[in-house]
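User: What would this chain look like folded?
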Amino acid sequence: MKQFFKNVLSSCFGIFFAGVLLFVVVIGYVSYKISSISNDEANEVLIENNSILKLNLDAPISERENKDPLSGFNLKGFSGDNSLGLLDILKVIHIAATDDKIKGIYIETSGVSTNLANVEEIRNALIEFKKSKKFVWSYSEMYSQTGYYLCSVADSVWLNPVGMVEFKGMVSQVMFFKGALAKLEIKPEIIRHGKFKSAVEPLINDHLSEANRLQIQTYLGTLWSHLKLGISTARKINVQELQAMVDNAKVTNAKTALQHKLVDRLLYKDQVLERLASQLDVATTDDIKMTSLANYIDANENTTYASTISTKSATAKNRIAIVYANGDIESGKGDDETIGSDRIAQAIREARLDENIKAIVLRVNSPGGSSMASDIIWREVMLTKKVKPVVVSMGGLAASGGYYIACCANKIIAEPTTITGSIGVFGVLWNGSGLLNNKLGITVDTVKTGRFADIGTTTRALTATERAIIQQEVETIYDDFISRVAEGRHMTKAQVDSIGQGRVWTAIDAQKIGLVDELGGIDKAITTAATLAKLDSYKLYSLPKQINPFEKIMQKMGASTTEANSRAMLGEAYPYYKALHNAVKHKGILMRTEYDVIY
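Assistant: Here's the prediction, encoded as structure tokens.
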């Protein structure tokens, strides 16, 4: 009876907690809708004359604006996503250049929570903004290396007197799990094509292969050279001098950063505000009118702006669709953070069949994934290309399956710091017989009606014949891969194979070998699509439709517990857990790459 009451009380508590949580969620969503309406009404008067646009880019920057109903709402372990959309950031910087109310941009950020390609796009937007002759000033208590690269284009770069600039070079670290798997007596069965296809190396090696070390050294060196050149141009410091700072650890604190001209002055925040007040010609720092990036985005939600070759019009009938393909490629629906083949294929199909959509920009930010799912998306791109222009804009990573879905587009445009290529295929199967037999004392017996009925089972090793069968399938898929690329890029299969083999490239090098057409960001991809479609005016239309608010809430209720709890329990060890999880979750034949570059 005592246990019965305990169960009843537990059930009642669970129901009560769920009810309270649902009530809070509904209130949050209603508040979100009301605030949205209020913002719409206030947009006309939000920005005052003689204002400064303040950029704080410490919050995550996503490929696409996240219209999260829980934004601004916070409950322990259950909160909204306040990420900014890249295109919105580029848009408002562009608008601010011709907005008489905005006198300049003030950047106050330490690090930038996004990939290096997105940083490059924002940095280029700031360089373009400076042509308006308005000021760009930057201040931070601590600049991360990526944050400093972004802010180095400012007219004045200021640092707290006891702050620092992180300037030490770039590093890529690969974690290997061969020893851990051996202790558990789990044996990975790897079948691959491509000597550079190194996504499986952490499972079978305890160090980098020479081929993998070569490709990492090559692309890391290209990225670092690009960053040094950008800083050298902006700060007028010799590239060799910058390298000497890194090799000899010359920049260790604020004073050495000033001594080596990485920053212009060492100032406290109150001194920065005084300079801003003087620049705006106002009496006190309290009179400074500063608008945040989020507010300026809201204020200009319905504002259009002139791009380099065409005029965007809010009333234009013609549209350019931006199809966002972000995350791992997998079969099924997927979500806003994964590329589900059904969802993305449907979005491309919708854009193809819509007569008002005259061109498509496929924004790819993906390490790849399922070979079958990649081919399904490729097919829709190929069909669409026959009807209207398709331009690919690559984000930070568009490799393996991410390149597969891009290769047949009319044009491929990528930032210099984009990682792409990795044209290769691998298969992963698991033999857990040692774990079952020796560690757990479990044995398995089998009855089957066909010789290969249990091929791929985790309870035993592959036979030589079975391995040959799977190897043949890998070879077939690799041949399909290089055939798709050869057709899309107007190359021979031999040429593609010579630059394939699973090797990754920066877009700088990828352009030289024909895998990328032009260097640039998403705005360049949009204007290129407009040119190909011969459009003078157009509106942008984003696809696929984002997950509806309540579905997103339900996803968060499920995902927040596992993700947040894992982070809380493991702390600094969480990245290692995540790396192991990513390494062992893959099964079957994949087109995928995985690298961790520390900027």
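The CA atoms of residues 401 and 591 lie 5 Å apart. If you want, I can go into more detail on any region.
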